[in-house]
Every structure is written in structure tokens, then in C-alpha cells.
Design goal:
The chain has about 110 residues and is mostly helical. It has helices at about 5, 25-40, 55-70, 80-100.
């Protein structure tokens, strides 16, 4: 039997691929709202140019965690979920780990 003859219809070999269908888009939308708020307040993608990057976003993340810990479910300034602000800061820190070197110089940017 040839390889073509042994293949079954309706099979897709995607077991080891990322499962985008597991992503809760309503939660991701809250993150997008935070990014939109920041874009209006500052500029599109301004967050990438803040220095010292890791220190500033770690501090911002911890301020939002502390506010949440005290019961602030929604951020007083933006009106958006406090934990979405935390999530956004975590995303920024992950971006830094992937795309900034130890001197906070850009080593690779997905946008370019």
C-alpha cells in the first residue's frame, strides 16, 4: 500500500501545535482595552520605549497587585479591571525577556 492509500480522510496532524481555541478571548479583550487606554494616554506602542523597562513595569505590576489585594477590582483611573492592568504588565515583562537584552537594548521586535 502506498502512503496515499493508508491515509484516512479527516485526519489533521496538529496535536503538538498551540491550541489557540483554549484562549479566553473575553479576557484577552480586557488586555486589549488596557493597551488601547495606554495608546490614547501616551502613544501607540509607547510602552516599548520606557526605561528602565523591567524596573518600571515590575513596580507598576506590584502597585496594581497591591490595589487588587486591597479590594480594588477596577482601576480608579481607567475604570478597567485591575487584574487586566497586572496582566498587561506581565505581558510587558515577558516581552522584555524575549526581545530585550540585559542592557535593555532591543534584540528583536516582532513588529519590524
Amino acid at each position: 500500500m502506498s502512503e496515499q492509500e493508508t491515509k484516512q480522510p479527516g485526519i489533521k496532524y496538529d496535536t503538538d501545535k498551540p491550541r489557540w481555541d483554549l484562549l479566553p478571548l473575553d479576557i484577552i479583550e480586557e488586555l486589549v482595552k488596557i493597551l488601547t487606554h495606554g495608546s490614547k494616554k501616551y502613544a501607540d506602542n509607547n510602552w516599548k520605549f520606557v526605561r528602565p523597562f523591567r524596573n518600571r513595569y515590575f513596580a507598576a505590576m506590584m502597585r496594581h497587585i497591591k490595589a487588587w489585594q486591597k479590594g480594588e477590582v477596577f482601576d480608579k483611573e481607567s475604570g478597567l479591571p485591575t487584574m487586566a492592568h497586572v496582566m498587561c504588565n506581565v505581558m510587558f515583562l515577558l516581552w522584555a525577556d524575549l526581545y530585550l537584552d540585559s542592557n535593555e537594548e532591543l534584540i528583536y521586535d516582532t513588529e519590524e
